[in-house]
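Interim report, section 4.2 (structural modelling).
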Amino acid sequence: MTKKIASLVFTLIVMIVLYTFYKGLKIEVNYNTSDLINKKIESFSIKSFNENSLFSEEDLKKNNFSLINFWASWCVPCRLEHENLMKLKELSNLKIIGVNYKDIKKNASEYLVDLGNPYNVLLIDTDGKQSVNFGIYGIPESILINSELMVLKKYIGPLMDKDLLEIKKEINK
Amino acid sequence: MLSYFGNSLLILNVFITLLILYFSSSFLTSNVKFDYKIVKRLILSQLSITVVSFFTLLFAFIITDLSIISVYSYSHESKPIFYKIAGTWGNHEGSLMLWVLILVVFSFLFYLFNNQNLRFRNLTLFFQNILILGFSIFLLVNSNPFEMIQPTPVEGLGLNPILQDPALAIHPPLLYLGFVGSSIYFSAAMASLISGYRGKNFASSIKSWIIFSWAFQTLGIIVGSIWAYYELGWGGFWFWDPVENASLMPWFAMAALAHSVIILERRESLYSWVIILCLLTFILSVTGTFLVRSGILNSVHTFASDSDRGIYILSFLCIMILSSFLIFLKKFPISDKPIENSNKGIFILTNNWFMVFYLITVLIGTIYPIFTEVFFETKISVGPPYYNLLIIPVLIPFLVLMAIGPETTWNKNSFLKFKKLIAVIISAVFINLFLYLVLKSFSVLTNLIVISSLFLIIYTLIDLLDYFKKGSSYKLPRTTAHLGFGLLILFIGLNHNLSEEYDFNLKVGEIKILDNYEIDFNNLELQDEINYKSLVGKFNIKTLNTNKIRSLNPEIRIYSKPETITYEASIKTNLLHDYFLTMSNIGDGDIYNIKFQRKPLMMWIWISAFLISLGGILRLFNKT
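Predicted structure of the assembly:
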C-alpha cells in the first residue's frame, strides 16, 4: 500500500516538474514584448546624441507615427537592417528615432558616416538603462508608435522587407 | 566535403548502435550463456567511428572549413590555433559531439574491464547504447555539427571572446567527464536491477566510475569558477547561476554515492539507495543539460536557445525517468541487509542526508523561477541570500560530522576517543579566537563556521600524520579530500569576511587615496593584438603602510570577430592576497569606472578545492 502511494506521489511530482519544464519552454524567456502592443509607452527621457538636451515622450506626440529604433555600431544584424531604415526615411508621415544603445560614441558616428544616417532624431543610451523601459532585450529592436503614444508594432531583430511593407500599411491606414 | 564525411559517419554510427542494441537486448529476457563475438567488433567500430567523426570536426575547425555552419558561426581564420581547437566544443553542436564521444569511450571501457558477469555486462552495454542512440539521433537531427551552409561564407563569425580563454577551453571536457561518467552507473544500475547482479560485486564494478566522475566534476567546477573569477570581472567566483547549479546538483549526488557505495561494498546493505542515487545522478546531469541547452533559464552560459532542442531533451529525460522508475518499482522491495549494526554506516548515511539536503536546496532554488513564471507569470531570480541562508548554517554540523565520521569503525561497540575530541575542539576554538583578535570582528555564524572547519582540518591533519607514521595508505585519499573541503570552507569564510572593495571613478593622470591605498591612474595605452584591440590602463597601487607599489593593468578589449567588448581584470596574486582591478568606460568621456578589490587567500581557495579533487584521483590509484 505504502509502495503504491509513494510511487504515485513520486510519479505525480515528476510529472508536475516535467510539465512545468514543458510549459517553461513555451514561454519566451526573453522579455515577451508582445504584451506591449496596444499599450501606451511609459514616459522616458533619453539624452540627445549631439546636443546636450533630453528627448521625452512629449516630443513624440508631434509626429503622426514614430519608429523608435535601437541600434549600435557593434551590432552586426543592425547593419543588415540599415538599408531598410534608409528606405523608411523617405516616408513623410513617419519619423525615425534612433537610440544608440550601449555604444562608443566615436564608433557610432563613424558607423552613420559610413552607412548613412536614417534617423530624424538621434539619441544615446550609453548604459542601456533607458532602453529597458521599452522592454529592449537585444538589439536591433524597433517600436512603431502613433501620436497617442500607443505601441502599434514591435520588431525584435532586424527589420526585413516584409516588416517594411507592414509598417507602410500601418501608417497609411 | 568534410560535412558529407562527418554526416555519413554520424549516420553509420546510429546504425551500429542499433545493431549493438539488437544483440545485447537478447540478454534482457533469456539467460544467454555466451558473448556474441560480433558485439566486440561492433563496439570497436562504434568507438573508431565516433573518434574519427570527432576528429573530423576538430580538423574542420583547425582548417576553418567555412562550409560547415558551426565552424562559420563559432570560428574565424584569425583565431589562434588553440582557440580554434577549443572552439570545437565551445558551441552547442560541437559540445554535444564531445558528449557522444565520451559516452561511447566510456561504454567501451566499461565493457572491456567488466567481465565477471556476462549478463550484467551486456545489459549495461544495452542501456548505455540506448543513451548513445538517444544522443546520437539528437546530434544528427537537431544539433548537427556538420551541417552545411550554402553559399560558403568568406569569413567566420568568430568565437565569443569571453570564451577565448585557456581555463574555459578545458572546462567543458573536464565537466563532461563527470556528467557523462555518471551515465555508466546509470546503465549499470538498470542492468543490475534486471540481472540481479547485486551487492559487493556490483558495488566494486561501479565504484571507480563514481570516484572518477566525481573527481572530474569537481575539477570542471573549479576551472569554471577560476574562469568566472578573472574573466567575468566581478571578483566573485561562485554566483549560484543556474548553470553552475546544474553542475553542482549531480556533484552532490555523486558525493553521496561515493560514500554510500562503500557501505554496499563492505556490508552489502543500502543497495536500493545506491541504485536510486545512480539513477538520480545521471538524470540530474541530463536535467542540467536540459536547463542549459533549452534556454529555459537565462544565465552567462546560455547557448543559443532553441525550444525544439529543449523538447527533445525533455522527452528523452521523461523516458529515462519513467522507464528507470518502472524497472525499479518492478524489482522493489529488494531484500537488503539492515544498516543498524554499524556506526560507520550510520555516519555515512548521515553524510548522504546532508548531501540530499544540499541537493534539494539547490534544485528548488534553480527551478523555482520556472515554476513562478509558468504558474504565476512572475519573473523572479533566486540569489545568494537564499542559498546562504539555507546552506551555511547546515555546514556547521556537517563539518563536525565529517571529522568524526571517519573515526568510527564498522564495529558497533567502538567509541570515539574523547580526549582527542576535546583536544581538537579546544584547539579549534583557540585558533578561531586568535583569528578573531588578529583580524577583524566577525559574526557569530562566521565564528561557528571557522571553528567547525578548523575542527575538521585538525582532525584530518591528525589522521594524515597517522598516515605518514604508519603508512596506512587507504586513509590518504579520504583525508586529502576532507582536508581540502575543510580548508575550502575556512578560506571562503575568511575571504568573504576580510575582502575589501572600492568602487570609484577616475580620469587618466589622477590619483585617489582610499584608506590604506593610493591609486594612481598613470596612463592609458591602445594596443593592437591579432584578434582584438585593447585599451590598457596603467595603474600603480601603493599600499601606504608598507610603501609597496604594485602595477596593475586592466584592459578593455574590443574584439572584431564577433564585435564585442570585454573587460579584463588585472589580478596580482600572492600567497596571502589577490589585488583585483577592473576598469570600464562610462559614457564617452575620459572618466573610467574603477573597481579595486583586495581579496585575501584566493590562491588557497583554489588549492583547497584542487585538494578535494586530488583526493578522488588518489583513490583511483589506491584501491583497497
